[in-house]
Amino acid sequence: MPQLTAPTHDVVIVGGGHNALVAAAYLARAGRKVIVLERLSHLGGAAVSESPWAGVDARVSRYSYLVSLLPRRIIDDLGLHIDLRRRRYSSYTSDPSDPSRGILVDTEDAAATAASFLQTTGDPGEAERYARFTQSLTPLARHLFPTMTEPLQTRSAVHAGFTDDGLWNAVIEQPLGGFLRSALQTDITRGIALTDGLIGTFSSSDDESLRQNRCFLYHVIGGGTGDWDVPVGGMGRVSAELERAAREAGAQLRTDAEVVGISPDGEVQIGGDRAHSVRGRLVLSGVGPAVLERLLAAGTAAAVGAPSCTGAPSVEIPEGAQVKVNMLLRRLPRLRDERVAPEAAFAGTFHINETMSQLDDAHAVASGGGIPDPLPAEIYCHSLTDPSILGGRLQTEGAQTLTLFGLQLPHRLVAEQDRDAARSALLQAATRSLDQVLAEPIADCVYEAPDGSPCVEARTTADLEESLGMIGGDIFHGSLSWPWAEDDEQLDSPAARWGVETMHPQVLLCGSGARRGGAVSGLGGHNAAMAALELLRG
Q: What's residue 315's pLDDT?
């Protein structure tokens, strides 16, 4: 493969996920020559809608499924036509000790919510404590979220602008468990809060690494409110709008273009039958840092004609910690809790076996190599908020989607196993957990495809690694970072100031692995584009 000496593009973007499309749109709108290279036959990465069951007119958000961290600034700047709908019911949490009762948090009926807390916990003050707890986080969300689309501030600068030292210490400096124990009095209510710290993150309430705190922070600051909204048309609608914005701005978007090597000076090697290279003045990496390291090793070796040898990795090896189960149901199942309508319980986040002690016990079991039983899980029904993801016949029949997200399942549990056997074991664990709170087996409600197969699919961390190239099935491409720079960090370049730097000046991060990356936010793409524009002007 001959080396290119002159740039063919201002920016080459490796990977075609939603962050890459955000970066491409911004850069092309600024008049830069941009090309996006995607290994798969479609764009969007994990932010896609697909029809997993042949002959069934249902498009599910197969991987990521809710939106909170996508800033209005990006939507407005790129002219995106996205309808994000707020859910009336925040959550329903079944009592594991007695599934005939549970806590329904109704954002439009405080009295009903308070009655639900009292009937389930027996504590007349817990509903008010939970309301105070959630409200106490709003000032932190309002303070931090606007900084996400600006150059990094230092920890001291961010802290200095926030007046509540007690809340700062509880969320930022000490393990989350202490905050939850002081603010809330019941195990079940503490669990409702703790789950926000464990989505895709293998941790416990008192983990000294504070992984759970960082995950919690990202979950409660979105939009300055912490609300998680349903994208009408599914997550694929979000990526489709980003693709439209990038194309209309003039970006070149290529699919079926697998990058096999990147050189630090900007040459990007594309494999396949027609192997060739493109060269950018800058390269933006939408793939995870661990994948980028492999591509840089391969590209450097190719440039000097030496065998590729990565040696010991210099970046963290990611590890996801979840299973996702997508289902299509003939109808919603009946609950053991007869006081709550399934249409209310499933419309928000439905917590199953997620008390604080259960979540910590599950972490201990998984740390020892076992699958937690019962498996902590949360589910919700996208089609209750957005029926458009179902065809007309399915809507008429009363069919509904159901998405289950199982927690505390680190990739190590499936990495060395047969993939089908591991998937089956996790699906069985998820089904057992769900059935504990239902008045009928979930299997009795599952829709059947024309060939008679059940409309159920499980996606493990191993499946994400294979299908999306996410090492370890880590949906964040590695541990989430605090959304600021530490006081001793050098912010002496555009890449450093925007949190997208690598060890190579011409290569920037633009995906979930960037500082302030993670979730469907577009932040990695926006911030990489801002850094790239500064560098290209220089």
A: 82
Q: Which one-letter amino acid corresponds to residue 457?
A: E
Q: What angle do CA 396, 402, 406 make, to 5 degrees?
A: 175
Residues 497-519 have pLDDT tens digits of 999 999 999 999 999 999 999 89
Mean pLDDT, the chain, integer: 95
Q: Which two tokens stand for residue 537?
A: 């002007």
DSSP 472-493: GG-TTSS----SSB-TT----S
Q: Domains of the chain, with CATH numbers?
A: 9-47+69-81+232-314+478-537 (3.50.50.60), 88-227+319-471 (3.90.660)
The set of residues, in sequence order, having a beta carbon less than 8 Å from that of 45 and lying 6+ positions away, is 15, 16, 17, 18, 19, 20, 239, 286, 468
Q: For residue 99, what is the DSSP state?
A: T
pLDDT score of 234 more than 90: yes
CA dihedral 208, 211, 216, 217 (to 10 degrees): 100
Q: Which residues contact 516 (CB under 8 A, 6 or more apart)?
A: 148, 152, 481, 483, 499, 523, 524, 527
The whole-angstrom separation of Cα 492 and Cα 58 is 49
Q: What is the 3-state secondary structure (H, E, C) of 212-254?
A: HHHHHHHHHCHHHCCCCEEECCCHHHHHHHHHHHHHHHCCEEE
Residues 6+ apart with CB under 8 A from 282: 10, 11, 12, 266, 506, 507, 508, 532, 535, 536
The whole-angstrom separation of Cα 178 and Cα 206 is 7
Q: What is the pLDDT of residue 361?
A: 98
* Cα gap 360→342, rounded to integer Å: 28
